Amino acid sequence: MRKFTKFTTMALAAATASIMASGAHAQVKDVAGVSGKVGEQLIALGSLAGIVAFLAGFVFGIMGFMKLKANASNPNDPSNKVSTGFILIFVGAALIAVPTVMGVGVGSIFGQGGQNTKLDAKGGGFTAIK
């Protein structure tokens, strides 16, 4: 009886979800539309990567300072090395700087007039490479 109740509940939930579901908003009619939607998602993915790098850098920096504080509180503990604290702080600073360094790096290597690709809403993707 318990199996039958579980199956009935799942079937009822699936039926309710299919009735309540509306038309998909992301439907496109041609390949150009698909390309545009993929480009929009890549823009969002790049922004997400920058946010994750910044937050991870912040966490690594805090962990480094906590490791230095733990060393100051108990210098004889072998797990609290000063070098580990400084490494964590350095990694945190590097992660915080990732979005800025990447933007400056592309501009300094290829220049402002060079053909390089951008992820933006206007052109997105590899449009400059033929």
Key traits:
130 residues, 3 helices, mainly alpha, disordered C terminus, 70% helix, single chain
Topology of this structure?
Layout: H1 2-20, H2 31-73, H3 82-110
Describe the structure.
- The protein has helices at residues 2-20, 31-73, 82-110.
- The protein has a domain at 54-111.
- 70% of the residues lie in helices and 0% in strands.
- The protein is built from 3 helices and no strands.
- By secondary structure, it is an all-alpha fold.
Structural class: mainly alpha
| Major sheet attributes | none
Specify the oligomeric state: single chain
Share of residues in strands: under 5%
| Overall pLDDT metric | 76
Number of strand elements: 0
Task: Give a short overview.
The radius of gyration is 25 Å and the shape is flat.
